[in-house]
Design a protein that fits this description.
heterodimer, A: alpha+beta, OB fold (Dihydrolipoamide Acetyltransferase, E2P), 3-stranded antiparallel beta sheet, B: about 375 residues, alpha+beta, Gyrase A, domain 2, Alpha-Beta Plaits, Elongation Factor Tu (Ef-tu), domain 3, 3 domains, 6-stranded mixed beta sheet, 8 helices, about 35% strand, globular
């Protein structure tokens, strides 16, 4: 069964075994407004917990995407290339990258749903 | 840190759920429902902007016309009362102190509309150059609100919702009207590339007009977010992006508003020198093939990856669905179709030089 963790910078990671699907939260997509471009890494790129792996752009501005965990990109969500607005439709379903985690213990420092909701209040 | 100012409509923006951010020393609404929806409302119907952050200054007195012509690049000599002019105030080096609108009320009374971010600087400049001129300078910035009603339906909204008789106003003209015993100024001007009007009135009347516009259901409240995307698409400059103290209006492609046949104005000698020597850089349009978005300050590179300029404004533009930018580049790279690159984070993206008017204006004559 998958579990969802959240970062204070409004990314989520849906964990399934050793693999995590990383995207931005519904709160984040709402704050950004219309997403018009997602700058994604490539498959086999390394990502590091706490460092940016790309950017998401609304009409108004670009925001860094911060990886909640370290690991290797095994898939990027190609659908977002032509239709970045999918993130506004359902950001939890439309993940951005799929990562093979190198250190699952990093998940311990992330927030659960309750703690994340507190943060957004 | 100094507190930001608020316009007379601030509480109403908050009540509407606007995203509020600092702009030009004010806490301003950036968007309500969303930039795209608001942008399209102005292109297709009608939107209202609270632009009460803008500054208003009156120049009056025996030498008012002569003084305005001394500090302003456009030529107001002999104009009819009720005419609006766009132009700049230049410093001695020919850079832009501010770009502004000048309204001629009569030979001895001119109404100047200046950018919020420059109010203090402009007032110091306007007051600092009056030696030898019989003029009085009155700052009305804190007393007046300003609304911009913009879009193809704006004439209908002005006449039917607000009851203001403005159908006879031509583009870049204004009239003064009495509303509830108060004098207001209404001009057929704007910053969106669409037909539209701007109203200068007391805080009380500004609130009344705002409420009537929103209650009509025919007018979308619009934030500064879409004000920027709208003006950008039709190639209008924003002070701080395309214009600055060290950017000449000639470099910015605004020479048409600098009347070199006037006997004199501050900055004329510098502009004449620049024209004689030739400009070193020029404001151009850029179009990217990719969806990546060139933002203000990003580097522009030539084919050898040397920096030849920077982006002044860029968007994935809403009405044309392309990633486009205005950029100030070395004049050698400013001809149409020149291939360039824009550095966006870790990568560079190919771009070509195009015309700055990305979207066609629809003004009423």
């Amino acid at each position: 069964m998958s579990k969802i963790y959240y970062s204070p910078t409004h990314e989520y990671i849906k964990v399934d075994g050793n693999v995590g699907y990383i995207g931005i939260t519904d709160y984040a997509q709402h704050q950004l407004g219309n997403v018009v471009y997602v700058d994604m890494p490539e498959v086999d790129d390394e990502v590091v917990a706490g460092e940016d792996f790309g950017a998401i752009e609304s009409v108004k501005a670009a925001s860094d995407l911060i990886s909640p965990v370290s690991g290797t990109v095994v898939e990027v969500n190609e659908a977002l290339v032509d239709e970045p607005g999918l993130i506004n439709k359902d950001s939890m379903e439309n993940w951005i990258i799929k990562v093979e985690m190198s250190d699952a213990s990093e998940l311990d420092s992330l927030l659960d749903e309750g703690a994340y909701k507190e943060l957004c209040h | 840190m100094e507190e930001n100012k608020r316009t007379c409509l601030y509480d109403k923006h908050v009540a509407l759920g606007a995203q509020v951010s600092p702009f030009g020393g004010f806490d301003m609404p950036i968007q309500y429902k969303g930039i795209v929806e608001e942008h399209n409302a102005v292109r297709n119907a009608c939107g209202v902007f609270d632009v009460s952050h803008m500054g208003e200054v009156i120049v009056k007195g025996e030498d008012a016309e002569k003084y305005v012509n001394h500090i302003f690049t456009n030529d107001v000599r002999g104009a009819e009362n009720g005419k609006c002019f766009y132009g700049m105030m230049l410093n001695l080096e020919g850079g832009v102190v501010d770009d502004l609108l000048v309204y001629k009320r009569d030979d001895k009374n001119f109404f100047l509309v200046i950018n919020a971010s420059n109010i203090d600087k402009d007032l110091a400049w306007i007051r600092g150059n009056v030696d030898g001129f019989d003029v009085e300078i009155v700052d009305l910035s804190d007393q007046l609100g300003e609304l911009a009603i913009q879009g193809p339906n704006s004439e209908k909204v002005m006449t039917e919702v607000l009851g203001l008789p403005v159908a006879d106003l031509g583009f870049y003209t204004f009239k003064e009207l009495d509303v509830d015993g108060e004098d207001i100024i209404v001009s057929r001007t704007g910053y969106t590339g669409e037909d539209g009007f701007e109203i200068y009135a007391s805080h009380g009347l500004t609130n009344k007009f705002w409420d009537e516009l929103l209650a009509s259901g025919d007018v979308e409240p619009c934030g500064l977010g879409c004000r920027d995307t709208l003006r950008f698409e039709v190639g209008l400059p924003l002070y701080g992006d395309e214009l600055a103290d060290d950017i000449s209006p000639i470099e910015a492609g605004l020479g048409i508003f600098v009347k070199m046949d006037k006997p004199e104005f501050i900055g004329k000698d510098a502009v004449a020198r620049l024209k004689a020597d030739g400009v070193k850089r020029k404001l151009v349009g850029l179009e990217l093939k990719d969806r990546a978005i060139p933002r203000h300050g990003y580097e522009v590179l030539n084919q050898n990856d040397e920096v030849v300029g920077h982006v002044t404004t860029g968007y994935h533009a809403i009405s044309v669905d392309k990633s486009i930018a205005m950029a100030l580049v070395d004049v050698d790279y400013s001809s149409l179709d020149t291939p360039l690159k824009v550095r966006i984070r870790r990568k560079t993206f190919p771009a070509i030089v195009v015309k700055k008017k990305f979207y066609k204006k629809s003004y009423k004559n």
